[in-house]
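A reminder from the course coordinator: this example appears on the midterm review sheet, so study it carefully.

Given structure:
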């Protein structure tokens, strides 16, 4: 397979149809010779990304001021849940009046009494952190860190932090976890848009890593149980940047473009590092490199599923880039076992 064609397939798996159209217009024979270096290819992809016009901005919505939340603590946890639930219900009405019917529908689903949120902010593309399970009494906590293109509007999608957290918790129940595991869907940072240059750089990941570190430190006031980070796509870059400064027993990356480093040793962490990729995930064809482009680091380093990287590989099945947390998938089952602390029972390579 020619290198540019390969990269188009991999990058295309992450992008919407309009962006894929731009990439599909490229012709390897006209753009570059067959022997073109992969690093130069990565630069070409990055430069091309800057030429792609972003989609239309969200409608301007006048949201009410958010309530002041109590500090994270066991005694005030229910109050915090209730305040966020009420804020989401109000924001749903305001989103409806502001012309964003999809967001309004999502917010109504998020605000139902059976769901619990540690934080919520509808501004911009939105942020929310959901708890699935009994956070106070859990013996292990798993945190789902989502990748590029995730917003409040698709929070409950199969690749979103809400849909992923629910699927993971349900799978853990099927595997006998009971109340021993709580799962957190963490949209606690601003993932880059899939049609911007930021999807190829560390900027959003570094900011996200700082936010993740702060959140995990606060979480100790509620429960200091062992934490597993489950990091999808660009979320694995966030986890790579946070690894040295957070206390986690396991970090599992899937559909990863890289962690911003060259090997597990470079992460400077005592956590066990796991990596998996579905057989149909086109990200395998994106060059795993990191280059300096006019003072800007582009790309995320070596491939975490490459044996030379040093991660423990897990079988992620046959799915594509958005299928890892899909109910019934092999990837979901293995990720749930890792979250439960039973990763050593997996067949690894």
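Designed residues:
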């Amino acid at each position: 397979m020619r290198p540019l064609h390969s990269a188009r397939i991999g990058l295309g798996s992450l992008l919407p149809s309009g962006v894929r159209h731009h990439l599909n217009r490229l012709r390897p024979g006209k753009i570059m010779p067959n022997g073109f270096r992969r690093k130069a290819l990565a630069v070409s992809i990055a430069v091309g990304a800057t030429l792609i016009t972003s989609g239309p901005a969200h409608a301007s919505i006048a949201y009410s001021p958010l309530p002041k939340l109590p500090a994270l603590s066991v005694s005030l946890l229910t109050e915090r849940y209730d305040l966020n639930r009420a804020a989401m219900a109000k924001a749903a009405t305001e989103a409806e009046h502001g012309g964003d019917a999809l967001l309004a529908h999502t917010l109504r689903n998020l605000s139902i009494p059976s769901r619990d949120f540690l934080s919520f902010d509808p501004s911009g593309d939105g942020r929310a952190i959901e708890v699935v399970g009994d956070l106070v009494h859990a013996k292990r906590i798993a945190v789902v860190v989502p990748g590029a293109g995730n917003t409040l509007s698709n929070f409950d999608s199969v690749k979103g932090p809400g849909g992923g957290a629910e699927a993971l918790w349900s799978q853990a129940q099927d595997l006998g976890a009971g109340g021993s595991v709580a799962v957190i869907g963490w949209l606690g940072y601003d993932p880059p848009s899939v049609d911007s240059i930021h999807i190829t750089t560390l900027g959003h990941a570094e900011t996200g890593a700082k936010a993740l570190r702060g959140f995990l430190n606060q979480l100790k006031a509620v429960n200091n149980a062992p934490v597993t980070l489950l990091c999808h796509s660009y979320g694995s870059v966030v986890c790579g940047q946070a690894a040295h400064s957070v206390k986690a027993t396991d970090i599992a990356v899937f559909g990863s473009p890289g962690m911003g480093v060259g090997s597990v040793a470079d992460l400077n962490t005592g956590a066990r590092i796991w990596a998996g990729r579905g057989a149909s995930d086109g990200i395998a064809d994106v060059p795993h490199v990191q280059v300096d482009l006019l003072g800007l680091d582009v790309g995320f380093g070596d491939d975490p599923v490459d044996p030379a990287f040093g991660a423990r590989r897990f079988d992620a099945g046959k799915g594509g880039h958005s299928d890892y947390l899909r109910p019934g998938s092999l990837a979901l089952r293995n990720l749930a076992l890792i979250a439960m602390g039973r990763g050593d029972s997996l067949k690894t390579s």
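Residues 245 and 290 are 22 Å apart (CA to CA). The first helix runs from residue 3 to 12.
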